[in-house]
Amino acid sequence: AAHVVDEASSVEVILQDGKTLKAEVLGIDEASDLAVIKINPEGIELHPLELADSSELKVGAAVAAIGAPFEYAWSFSTGVVSGLDRTIEAPNGFSVSHAIQTDAAVNPGNSGGPLLDAEGDVIGVVDQIATDGSADQSSGVGFAVPSSLVSAELKQLEAGEKVEHAYLGVATATSTEGTEGAEVAEVVS
Q: Which of 82, 111, 138, 147 is catalytic?
């Protein structure tokens, strides 16, 4: 997730055997809260996860999240897809559409970790949790950026290119004149 590495002076990856490697941030997109980092894989046996097609997901599908909630490394939680096509807010205020909602326990420290389907393929990147403002911990309503968005941006982020997004820049409000429709409240220059 972009908010995990954004403005970091250095980034490290800790492997399951405890080995720590320096990582390079290749690209960040704050509009989708995605980032790509790179390590030197020389001498390491890696088992890359496959990206699945999140557009094929159904509510009720089994999922699992891997991360380090509250710094408990290699935590694994399970649940289901609780909802699809949710809209969440990215760090720059843009909306991320088609987010995946899950009841798998995700907490601070899960961000950037994978949301896996029953086959062990990545269907999303864990991004945030719903809270009532009183506690930043699992409410049973977590969200992941869908793998379809990851796939669409991956090559640009790997190349360090800026990802462009369409932006209308118009804010509306309910009409106060007693007429039907919406009122243009603001237009971004």
A: 111
